[in-house]
Design brief:
By secondary structure, the chain is mainly α. The protein has 19 helices and seven strands. A three-stranded antiparallel beta sheet has the order 5-6-7. β3 and β4 form a beta hairpin.
Length: 480
């Protein structure tokens, strides 16, 4: 007996029971998604996006800028100040951990290089600054094109080829990463040259780029966007540590960061991931995806006894012998999406409902549950960083106009903030410290330390705390 269904705008297809979805379970899961979140299928999601003309589409502007990048910026591994000479010498091979100076490796990890290469308020040494200026001169055409990103939004993304599992936009993500590196270095160069407002223009273009990074909406593109936002935050913090932008430039930058903070990136990514499940089912039924293709993805990683056990467990309890696995996966994503629709903090506000979703998803979906929780944690930390940046920019505007730092966050209301940003980890206001040499904004984490076992480069990070430091003007722009 075969199941006939219409999924993802791909027309009528036949699904053989006991492959990845049984007839009743899959129909019920699709009906639930239709009732709770109409228009959830891939073609319907894409149809909701308003096409933009090329000159206003952040995706198309970014693509044109990437094509103009000179060879030194074609590597996605040019990350820290220590890499600047490589932009001039052309040595842009993929850097390995052994290439990192021992002083940077000691007690640290690769994830921290952008933060630790130089103290935030230290200037580049003259040789590094000269090398950076030379590199940015070679990238002038790409830089001018990328500045057209300022104030733009992503339009209609290019549809993914089917089956989606074999055509994930990994290469596109790496291309975006290269442009992000150029904009970061452009901001640093402008700040070093005494042009802080121009530096923030690069950061505003970068903010639009991170929105384009999140298209098409999937968990993997959301992760790339979060990484871009992290680099953006370091660029803004560096600018504020060595220069004093004008109040107008700070205000526009604050608006851009607030836009990123309010964007439903994780919600749209979860919706996209749900359509990914539907595409897997339809692709298997149509014969354009084979079970061997799915198994091959797991065989790309080194075999271990634990992975063999997981493969066998999934095969018995979550694969062909449990034909409703994809139906349960679809329902799990629908439940998470419903929590996120109420608020990006929905899973935090309603932990018991999240536990219930975990329990209902049953055998064979452990990887899906872990990935989802990891992404929700990543989203919380990223929003904590953006919220801290909003407070920092507002406080810097306050100091510019009133000649002193605010004694507390409440002083920023209502002229500089409409409301106090919330720490997504604790659902409480950010922590604000007034110090003799400046201020510090902190978003204290709660459970990020547990992610070290899932994301290797996060091992050793303490509690997921986000700290942002602003210095008194006379203490900025220190010698490198």
């Amino acid at each position: 007996m075969a199941l006939t269904a219409t999924i993802g705008g791909f027309g009528e297809i036949s699904i053989v029971p006991n492959s990845y979805a049984s007839e009743d379970a899959w129909n019920a899961a699709c009906d639930e998604a239709d009732r709770l979140d109409p228009g959830w299928r891939w073609d319907e999601l894409r149809a909701k996006i308003v096409p933009l003309p090329p000159e206003r589409d952040a995706i198309q502007i970014s693509a044109a800028a990437i094509d103009l990048l000179p060879p030194p910026f074609q590597s996605s591994m040019i990350n820290s100040d220590a890499d600047i000479p490589r932009l001039v010498t052309g040595n842009t091979r993929e850097m390995k951990w052994g290439d990192v100076p021992a002083a940077h490796r000691a007690g640290r990890n690769q994830f921290d290089l952008d933060f630790l290469a130089y103290p935030r308020r230290s200037r580049l040494t003259p040789p590094l600054l000269a090398a950076l200026r030379e590199a940015m001169t070679s990238a002038n055409a790409a830089r001018q094109q990328s500045l057209r990103l300022i104030g733009q939004s992503p339009g209609l993304f290019v549809p993914l080829k089917r089956p989606m599992m074999k055509n994930l936009p990994i290469d596109l993500a790496m291309r975006y990463r290269r442009l992000a590196g150029m904009l970061r270095f452009g901001a640093i160069c402008a700040a070093e040259d005494g042009q802080p407002d121009v530096a923030l223009d690069h950061c505003r273009a970068f903010a639009s780029l991170t929105q384009a990074m999140a298209r098409p909406p999937l968990l993997i593109t959301a992760l790339v966007s979060f990484a871009g936002q992290n680099i953006l935050a370091t660029a803004i913090a560096r600018t504020l540590a060595i220069s004093e932008p004008s109040s107008s430039a700070l205000a526009t930058m604050q608006e851009e960061i607030q836009t990123l903070l309010d964007a439903p990136v994780i919600l749209e990514a979860m919706r996209g991931e749900r359509t990914f499940v539907a595409d897997k089912v339809t692709s298997l039924a149509e014969g354009i995806l084979e079970q061997e293709d799915i198994d091959a993805m797991h065989r790309k990683f080194p075999l271990s006894l634990w992975k063999l056990k997981k493969w066998a467990f999934r095969k018995i309890f979550g694969g062909e012998l449990a034909g409703n696995r994809s139906a349960r996966e679809l329902r799990f994503y629908t439940g998470v999406i419903e929590l996120l629709k109420s608020s990006p903090d929905g899973p935090t506000i309603h932990p018991e409902e999240m536990k219930s979703l975990d329990k209902q998803s049953g055998f064979g979906l452990g990887e899906t549950r872990r990935t989802t929780r990891m992404m929700l944690l990543t989203d919380r930390r990223q929003r904590a960083g953006m919220a801290a940046m909003v407070v920092a920019l507002a406080a810097e505007r306050f100091r510019n106009e009133r000649g002193r730092w605010p004694n507390n966050q409440e002083e920023l209301l209502p002229d500089y903030l409409h409301k106090l940003p919330c720490n997504p980890h604790t659902l409480e206001p950010m922590t604000y410290y007034r110090m003799p040499d400046g201020i510090e904004i902190e978003a204290r984490g709660r459970d990020w330390i547990s992610m070290g076992g899932i994301i290797p480069y996060l091992r050793g990070r303490q509690r997921g705390d986000v700290k942002l430091r602003l210095w008194n003007p006379e203490l900025r722009r220190q010698s490198g």
